[in-house]
Amino acid sequence: MNPLIYLDYAATTPASPEVAQEMARYLTLDGCFANPASRSHMAGWMAEQAVEQARQQLARLIGADLREIVWTSGATEANNLALIGAARANPERGRHIITSSIEHKAVLDTCAWLEKQGYRITYLQPNAQGIISAEQLAAALTDETLLVSLMLINNELGSINPIEDYALLLRDHPALWHIDAAQAVGKLEIDVQRLGVDLLSISAHKFYGPKGIGALYVRRDPPVHLEAIIHGGGHERGMRSGTLATHQLVGLGVAARQAQEQMQADRAHVQACRQAFLAELDPQGYQAHSDLEQGWPGIVNLGFPGIEAETLMLALPDLAVSTGSACNSASIDPSYVLARLGVPRALALSSIRFSFGRYLTLEQAQQAGQQVQKALSSLR
Which residues are within 8 A (CB) of 86 and not within 5 positions of it... i.e. 6 or more apart? Predict the structure, then answer.
């Protein structure tokens, strides 16, 4: 039996061997397992030093000051802290929030909750490639706009929003600017200082770090004020309480360093993998929802007219793929992202997301394409 070919890197990535090895050193009695908040002994100081080194490694990756990194359990918590924390701490800015209809559920569900608290949410509609233009954003901004929250790379399509254009637009507007960068950190060059972004969400397991750990970048100059949503000890400068998971943070730091070192090579590799995969498919047999020219090459979403995605995936037992976001993988409904792009229901139900990463070989990508084409030919 052939080993499973993993094509679901957008859902999660495997931790790199160096990440896993370094994490193990911070778990057991003969390692540095102490609580980094324990300031009364050497073991605690060493753990704190490891945490701060990780903070510096992540800050360097996104062009931030290490004091602007607030640890969280992942991008979902970071998104909640950014939106709810900013709304509660800045009532004078207004009660209007702008986002898009195809954001991750961690943003959409949080906005829906804020809507019940009396906030007005504007959901911008993307174009056919999943892009929100700066002109759309400009038209939606008002004097009451408190926050703009738009993702960088869409997790189902790979579309890349024009954040440079947003930066120019928002530079002269008092609204806070949040980017959900879970799919982008470690893959695209990001400089939060140059962009002038106020808040940016990060998830380690999207760039070969461990699950269950992430961060929120919070700008210090001028300062962005957030109200904590988790209380109990005042950790992370009062923005996020809880004992820090030293081993996970160390893993995140190593992953951030490796991402910075390998970013260009990683991008070239996933682009080559996508090309090898698509070269095996009959171009007349699928419809691409992703922008194959301008989008992130590590994610491609394809519709196969006349064949339900669930049926096709059953015919591909050796491939790990998905019909969209892992958060909605158990749903029998079509992807809400595709639905909001205007993709017909039947075509949306025939669509699969293939995502490529560092440890996929070109030979595996080619074999995956061959298996998909063989299954399609058989089913048709």
Answer: 146, 147, 176, 178, 199, 224, 225, 226
- Judge whether 241 and 231 are in contact, CB under 8 Å: yes
- The answer to whether the beta carbons of residues 313 and 269 sit under 8 Å apart is no
Residues ≥6 apart with Cβ < 8 Å to 149: 79, 82, 83, 97, 98, 99, 103, 107, 111, 178, 179, 180
Catalytic residue of the set 32, 111, 273, 327: 327
Architecture per CATH, domain 17-258, reads as 3-Layer(aba) Sandwich (3.40)
DSSP assigned state of 8: B
pLDDT in tens, 138-181: 999 999 999 999 999 999 999 999 999 999 999 999 999 999 99
Q: What residue ranges do the domains of the chain occupy?
A: 5-13+263-379, 17-258
Per CATH, is 5-13+263-379 categorized as 3.90.1150.10?
yes
Closest CA to 126 of 358, 357, 339: 339
Instruction: Please say if the pLDDT value at position 368 is more than 70.
Output: yes
- Is 327 a residue of the active site? yes
